[in-house]
DNA sequence: TGCGTGGATATTGGATCCAATTTATCCAAG
DNA sequence: CTTGGATAAATTGGATCCAATATCCACGCA
């Protein structure tokens, strides 16, 4: 008797994204992306086109287009005639993403900071407060992303911002490990508050230094945790 | 009488890429990407799926998958039920790409520099020499890209390097304007030589500063040229 | 004469169908 | 019992077909 195929529970993503898009392709792409980033579809999972199509209630074609887009975003890998697989997470990959964030985010912040409005700063403060009250890692990632992007939003560089947001989102795949790696949370909030204060003062150098440290601190903690974990399981 | 449809001369890309790939999708994606980056398919051009399929000798399906990948790389835009268009170039977009390069490349260089070998440095020197003898902008872009990537190659961060190479390639769309913006070439070569010298000395701070200046200098020249040009035509 | 409406046409988006390749299974031989 | 190979099943890649949507142009009307 063969093991029953793992039921893909994508209902969350379906109801959240389906009404927002005009084409099935874009809907499937958005839903799959969130499913991967949130960990519903773990690294290494083979993505059977037929199965996904059934789960989303569409044919295989929009699934294929969506998978190609996710391939370009380095979230899935294609192996010719063998199909697509969710890319694995690893300490190396986490470091890779952190290096990219540490390069992009200070640049975005420096361009954005002079144009931040009082409203932007107030929104950022609100988001920090919301994070204090939030326990769910998924929502937490969303709030964290919005906090950071609020500070970068006035950079006036669409491509730079899109890349930054992509890699902030990519970091979400490691969020649950950050939670597991003991209470990173309160420290992270202190860093958020310090960063916001520097932005309020218009101190670009300090703000950039803080955001860089913030990213690298999280990465170091995460790398240590993932390395230990890999050593145990391997 | 309607104007004859513009014949897409993609023969260069076809013969260069066709044998390198196992699936039609990947072949079409690589060929289209190069056609856009090299300027054979200019910004604003509507990409008719049927026409491309005929030009490549395949059906519409691999074309669609390729277009989706290029969309994720911000080289084409989809408009629902109206098709894909090559994204326009502009002074703003050039500045955007430069900002990304100026963020990524010093980071890559700093990680890579300590691990550069004698052979890497020799190869970089060879590439500078080749550039001196090269007049064709297309080949020039390729050599320039290889020179830069040679210096970054030992960073040990696949995602960071892939992003860097993508945006080096994206800058190629503006290469012919850089040539037009009077002889940028010799100055650029001086900068390349200085950068290589700093790498030889293992002076990371100086190398990073030089590569940043190199990128921003090219951008300033380009922005001025494109702005003037836009003012004339507009 | 200008503008809005309606139908024809072109083109995309999605579904189905077929071919090519890989993986799994089973049997035989060592 | 293991290993090799042939064959069958599963799955992807590609082509074709159909439906949905947008654009274009003619026509009618103010």
TrEMBL record, chains A, B:
Q: Does the keyword Chaperone apply?
A: no
Q: Which InterPro entries match?
A: GntR_C (IPR011711), TF_FadR/GntR_C (IPR008920), Tscrpt_reg_HTH_GntR (IPR000524), WH-like_DNA-bd_sf (IPR036388), WH_DNA-bd_sf (IPR036390)
Residues forming the HTH gntR-type domain are: 22-89
Q: Which PROSITE patterns match?
A: HTH_GNTR (PS50949)
Recorded hits in Gene3D superfamilies, A to Z, give: GntR ligand-binding domain-like, Winged helix-like DNA-binding domain superfamily/Winged helix DNA-binding domain
Q: Which UniProt keywords apply?
A: DNA-binding, Transcription, Transcription regulation
MF-aspect GO terms: DNA binding; DNA-binding transcription factor activity
Q: Does the keyword Transcription apply?
A: yes
Under what name is this protein listed? GntR family transcriptional regulator
């Amino acid at each position: 008797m063969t093991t029953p195929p793992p039921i893909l529970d994508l209902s969350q993503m379906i109801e959240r994204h389906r009404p927002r898009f005009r084409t099935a392709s874009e809907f499937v792409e958005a839903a799959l992306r969130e499913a991967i980033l949130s960990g519903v579809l773990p690294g290494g999972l083979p993505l059977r086109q037929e199965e996904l199509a059934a789960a989303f209630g569409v044919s295989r074609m929009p699934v294929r287009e969506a998978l190609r887009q996710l391939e370009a975003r380095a979230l899935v890998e294609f192996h010719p005639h063998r199909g697509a697989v969710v890319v694995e997470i690893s300490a190396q990959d986490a470091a890779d993403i952190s290096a990219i964030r540490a390069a992009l985010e200070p640049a975005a912040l420096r361009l954005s900071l002079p144009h931040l409005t009082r409203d932007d700063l107030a929104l950022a403060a609100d988001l920090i407060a919301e994070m204090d009250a939030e326990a769910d890692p998924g929502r937490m990632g969303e709030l964290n992303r919005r906090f950071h992007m609020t500070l970068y939003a006035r950079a006036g560089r669409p491509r730079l911002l899109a890349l930054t947001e992509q890699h902030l989102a990519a970091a979400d795949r490691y969020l649950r490990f950050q939670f597991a790696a003991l209470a990173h949370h309160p420290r992270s909030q202190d860093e958020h508050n310090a960063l916001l204060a520097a932005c309020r003062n218009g101190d670009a150098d300090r703000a950039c230094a803080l955001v860089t440290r913030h990213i690298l601190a999280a990465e170091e903690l995460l790398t240590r945790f993932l390395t230990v974990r890999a050593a145990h399981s391997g």
